[in-house]
Design goal:
Blueprint lengths: L10 E4 L4 E5 L11 E4 L5 E4 L8 H4 L8 E4 L5 H4 L7 E5 L3 H5 L8 H4 L27 E3 L4 E3 L4 E6 L8 E5 L4 E5 L16 H12 L5 E4 L5 E2 H15 L2
Parallel strand pairs: 4-5, 5-6, 6-7, 11-12
Antiparallel strand pairs: 1-2, 2-3, 3-4, 8-9, 9-10, 10-11, 12-13
Helix pairs in contact: 5-6
Bound molecules: zinc ion (2 copies).
The site of one zinc ion has 7 residues, from helix 2.
C-alpha cells in the first residue's frame, strides 16, 4: 500500500450552521472518525481531532484561525490523535486520565489499528505497530450540564456514558444541532468496548431520544435529521427490549 502525502490527508466540507466536516478519506469508513469544526464569534470549537497521523494545525489552516476549544467526545484513539496540538483541551472528567496517558490499550489502538484500516497509509514514516496517541492533559474537565461558550453560540454538555464512561454529546438548542460522538451514529454501533456499560448505554439512548434535534453529527458515518434520529434510537431500544 502506498503512503498518502500530508497535504492529501484531510478533506474539508463546509456545511450549514457554520460547521465544517473534516474527513480523513484514506481511513476505511467504519474506522474513520468524523472531525467537526464549529465557528463561533469569539472562539471556535473542534469536536474530536482524528487519528493524529498528520498534523491538523499544520495542514488545516481553519483550525488555527481563532482561539479554539478542542473537545473530545471521548478518548478512543480515532477521536483524540491531534488534541496535543491545541492549547485548550476539554474532556469529560471520567476520561481525563486517558487523555493524559493515552496508552494503546486504553484508547483501543492496540486492537483496532493495523494497515488494513487504511486505503492509503499515512505519510511515511508510519507503522501501525508503533502507532500511539500523544499525551494531551485536559485543561478543562467537563460534566453534564456544562456549557461551552463560543461567544454567540452555546453548546451544552450531555453526559452519554455507555460506549465509554466519559462519552459526551454537545447540544446547541437554538440551532437544533447535536454532536453525538460514538454513542449514536448511523452505522454499526460499538457496544462492547472494554469500558462499555450496557445499562448506561440504554439510559443514554433514552436521554438522547428526548432531545428535539434538527441535525445530528455523529462520531462516524453520515449526519442525519430528526426522523432518522428517532428511528435509530427506537429500533435500538426495541432490539434491547428497553
Ligand atoms: Zn470512534
Ligand atoms: Zn469510540
Amino acid at each position: 500500500m502506498d503512503h498518502a502525502r500530508p497535504e492529501d490527508w484531510y478533506a474539508l466540507t463546509k456545511l450549514a450552521d457554520d460547521i465544517t466536516y473534516i474527513c480523513e478519506p484514506h481511513i476505511t469508513e467504519y474506522y474513520r472518525c468524523n472531525i467537526w469544526h464549529v465557528r463561533g464569534r469569539e472562539r471556535d470549537m473542534l469536536v474530536d481531532s482524528g487519528m493524529g497521523v498528520v498534523s491538523l494545525s499544520e495542514w488545516v489552516p481553519l483550525v488555527t484561525e481563532r482561539p479554539l476549544d478542542a473537545v473530545a467526545s471521548h478518548t478512543h484513539y480515532d477521536h483524540i490523535g491531534c488534541h496535543h496540538e491545541f492549547n485548550c483541551r476539554l474532556v469529560h472528567a471520567a476520561e481525563a486520565d486517558i487523555l493524559a496517558d493515552p496508552t494503546r490499550a486504553a484508547t483501543l489502538a492496540d486492537t483496532a489499528v493495523r494497515d488494513e484500516i487504511f486505503t492509503r497509509l499515512p505519510p511515511a514514516p508510519y507503522a501501525s505497530t508503533a502507532y500511539a496517541v500523544k499525551s494531551a492533559p485536559a485543561t478543562r474537565l467537563l460534566a453534564d450540564g456544562d456549557v461551552i461558550d463560543l461567544g454567540d453560540r452555546h453548546f451544552e454538555v450531555i453526559h452519554t456514558p455507555g460506549h465509554s464512561p466519559g462519552g459526551i454529546a454537545l447540544w446547541e438548542a437554538v440551532s437544533g444541532v447535536l454532536f453525538s460522538g460514538d454513542i449514536l451514529y448511523d452505522g454499526p454501533l460499538y457496544e462492547d468496548t472494554y469500558h462499555a456499560n450496557a445499562a448506561d448505554y440504554v439510559a443514554s439512548m433514552k436521554h438522547l431520544l428526548e432531545i428535539p434535534v434538527r441535525v445530528v453529527h455523529g462520531g462516524h458515518f453520515a449526519s442525519f435529521g430528526r426522523e432518522r434520529h428517532r428511528a435509530l434510537i427506537r429500533a435500538w431500544l426495541d432490539e434491547k427490549g428497553a
